[in-house]
């Protein structure tokens, strides 16, 4: 007799399964272009100097301890995290229209958003629209909660650019008040962001249909090296009063602080008006969700990020660190492009590798080519052809270009 008659073993998670195959590969020149984590020019994980200094400051301070945080999280972290994403001069902050809750990094923020909307947004009757393609976990985070998931066109594979027409027509044809999840910057997996003019068009159309926006901000500072530029769409929609519905922001510090495993993040709801009753009700419901699921958020990472954000010198160092990371990635984009286009004269147009931003490049390589890269060349990327450009460095970029050239021809 089986106690779990319908249970089936699932295949490994595509990304973490790839990582396991990479780890098991004994070829010394293997290259990991899979997981979205920054690596230095020697292919090693990088602890940001700002984080190192903040850790020392934190653990040597007299009031350092390992007590529980409150259910909402570490207040000095939350206050500054809201300013990082909304801007220090944010109208929404000044008008007390923001509710913030610490979450288990970006994934946890998305999960809390889903739980909250399922219960309270028109009784969960609305569908959530995700870009096609999107970060693979988006689908299962919302499907696991029983939300209805739809997609909107985003990537035009022929032109390797934004399918703006398809995107806008999806916004227009979706039922009034649907939920749209937007990548705030450094779109995963395509590395392709709307221009500021395109963003304006998208936001006006969303407002015309009263859709509710979730901004997923997992890479602020990674796309351009500049926190303000990478928050353009979020700040424009709020500061210009474009969007009249509540806005949800899911904020991660995993990538921009290199704090992947510490799970530092927040969910913010920006209410269109300052209503103490609504904001208090939202906060209490966030508290209920967090209390029942994780009791209270993890302390260590949020205290480190708070130490950085509340110390002008450390914050300045962090801003330098963001430039270090984003400019190394951009340098690698240019080198790979030059090798393919000018040196090897690899068939096809590789311009998109240079023009895409953030951690990833949607290379356009087919799943067969990706499989050959892994089996013949020990180069690992996900089957969609998305490459984590952070895995490239001066020592492996030639090998990768040669291998791309070989599988394309
Ligand atoms: N959103 C996007 C688009 C991502 O790519 C990721 C991570 O890869 C996340 C959210 C969540 O990351 P984390 O939970 O590590 O903050």
Average pLDDT rating: 96
Which ligands appear in the coordinates? pyridoxal-5'-phosphate
| Order of the strands making up the biggest sheet | 2-10-9-8-7-3-4
Structural class assignment:
alpha/beta
Task: Note poorly predicted spans.
Answer: none
Radius of gyration: 22 Å
Helix content: 40-55%
Query: How large is the share of residues in beta strands?
Result: 5-15%
Q: How would you characterize this protein structure?
A:
There is one protein chain. The chain has 409 residues and is an alpha/beta fold. It is 44% helix and 13% strand. The chain has 15 helices and 13 strands. It has helices at residues 14-24, 49-59, 75-86, 91-94, 105-120, 136-144, 164-173, 196-208, 232-239, 276-293, 300-309, 312-343, 351-355, 367-377, 397-408; strands at 31-32, 98-104, 128-132, 149-153, 155-156, 161-162, 179-183, 212-217, 247-252, 264-270, 360-362, 379-380, 386-388. The strands form four sheets. Strands 2-10-9-8-7-3-4 form a seven-stranded mixed β-sheet. A two-stranded parallel sheet has the order 1-12. α9 links the parallel β8 and β9. α7 (164-173) runs parallel beside α8 (196-208) and α14 crosses α15 (397-408). The radius of gyration is 22 Å and the shape is globular. The mean pLDDT is 96. Bound molecules: pyridoxal-5'-phosphate (PLP). Pyridoxal-5'-phosphate (PLP) binds at residues 36, 105-107, 135, 183, 188, 216, 218, 252, 254, 260, 265.
């Amino acid at each position: 007799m089986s106690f779990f008659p319908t249970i089936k073993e699932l295949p490994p998670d595509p990304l973490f399964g790839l990582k396991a195959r990479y780890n098991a590969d004994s070829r010394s020149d293997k290259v990991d272009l899979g997981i979205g984590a920054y690596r230095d020019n020697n292919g090693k994980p990088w602890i940001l100097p700002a984080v190192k200094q903040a850790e020392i400051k934190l653990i040597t301070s007299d009031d350092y301890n390992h007590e529980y945080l409150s259910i909402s999280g570490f207040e000095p972290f939350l206050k500054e995290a809201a300013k990082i994403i909304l801007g220090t001069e944010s109208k929404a902050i000044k008008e007390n229209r923001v509710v913030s809750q610490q979450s288990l990094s970006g994934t946890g923020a998305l999960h809390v958003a889903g739980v909250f909307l399922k219960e309270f947004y028109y009784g969960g009757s609305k569908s959530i629209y995700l870009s096609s393609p999107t970060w693979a976990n988006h689908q299962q985070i919302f499907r696991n909660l029983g939300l209805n998931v739809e997609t909107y066109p985003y990537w035009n594979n022929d032109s390797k650019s934004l399918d703006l027409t398809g995107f806008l027509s999806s916004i227009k044809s979706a039922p009034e008040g649907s939920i749209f999840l937007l990548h705030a910057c450094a779109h995963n997996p395509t590395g392709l962001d709307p221009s500021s003019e395109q963003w304006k068009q998208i936001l006006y159309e969303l407002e015309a249909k009263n859709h509710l926006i979730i901004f997923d901000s997992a890479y602020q500072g990674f796309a351009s090296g500049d926190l303000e530029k990478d928050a353009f769409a979020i700040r424009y929609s709020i500061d210009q009063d474009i969007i009249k519905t509540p806005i949800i922001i899911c904020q991660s510090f995993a990538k921009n602080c290199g704090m992947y495993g510490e799970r530092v993040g927040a969910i913010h709801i920006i209410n269109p008006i300052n209503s103490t009753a609504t904001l208090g009700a939202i906060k209490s419901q966030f508290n209920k969700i967090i209390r029942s699921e994780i009791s209270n958020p993890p302390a260590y990472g949020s205290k480190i990020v708070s130490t950085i954000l509340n110390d002008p010198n450390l914050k300045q160092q962090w801003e330098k660190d963001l430039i270090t990371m984003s400019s190394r990635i951009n340098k690698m984009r240019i080198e790979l492009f030059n090798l393919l286009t000018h040196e090897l004269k690899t068939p096809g147009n590789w311009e998109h590798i240079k023009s895409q931003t953030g951690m990833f490049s949607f290379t356009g390589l087919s799943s067969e080519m990706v499989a050959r890269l892994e089996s013949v060349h020990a180069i690992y990327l996900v089957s969609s052809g998305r490459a984590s450009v952070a895995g490239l460095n001066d020592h492996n970029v030639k090998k990768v270009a040669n291998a791309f050239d070989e599988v394309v021809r």
